[in-house]
Please model this.
Amino acid sequence: MTFEHPNNGYQETITNFSILWCLVFGSLYFAYKGIWRHFVLSLAIGLFTFGVSWFIYPFFAKNIIATQYRKNGWLEI
Model:
């Protein structure tokens, strides 16, 4: 999946490796991507479930990132 910023033409590609990076780095991956709501949410749920949710949350990472780009006005190309 590739998204393009409408103002400056910058392109960002979302690959299946986002699942791996979210699994390895946990909620810090969402902070790196600038998705602060999911950073806080995944951190809170991870602490509440003693880390069990960190094995489930990565499977939704690609969709979460794509949704955030769409909300920010990026165009999928």
Observations:
- Strands lie at 2-4, 11-13, 75-76.
- Residues 4 and 75 are 5 Å apart (CA to CA).
